[in-house]
Amino acid sequence: MTGCDLHHNEKNPRPGIVFTGTSPVHGPVGVWNNFSLAAIVTLPDVRKAPSILVIDDQPTVRRMAHRLLSEWGFRVFEAESGEEGMEVLETARSGIQLVIVDVVMPLADGVQVTRRIWERWPGQRILYMSAHPAEVLMEYGLSRLDAPFLAKPFTRDELLTKVSDALAAPTSAPVEGPPR
Fold this sequence. Notes:
The chain has about 180 residues and is α/β, with parallel strands linked by helices.
């Protein structure tokens, strides 16, 4: 909650304005023209923040998603392949609330990785992402048009909206598609 309050300092009898708010990112304190500007920040308890695993073979996409999600208080893990993603999930012991996975990757694609994840952790929430058109995604086995999906490149708002929707949705159901 954000508020504004007059602030009186005994050493300086002129009032200042104190702004209070909650943000996981901002918190600078400054003084301007004898007015005190203080943002009182409550950082999120990262032990309770949702954990997200980003699996993508492109380091720039992983880093950008990590930065954007971390700024909003999420705990973020990265993996550059499905195999590495499975290792992260094993280590986390089902502590990951959402997996964001690229559909088109070398070795194992995102749909294959998702099937492996669901074999071990049925119902794990998944958000697919890709820069490829629907025809290409269908070739990779993503045949459900209603599957949670984020188109690349994405903006911060698009990412946060899709992540929020995916976390609010019931646990995921397996993707139906041709065997690969």
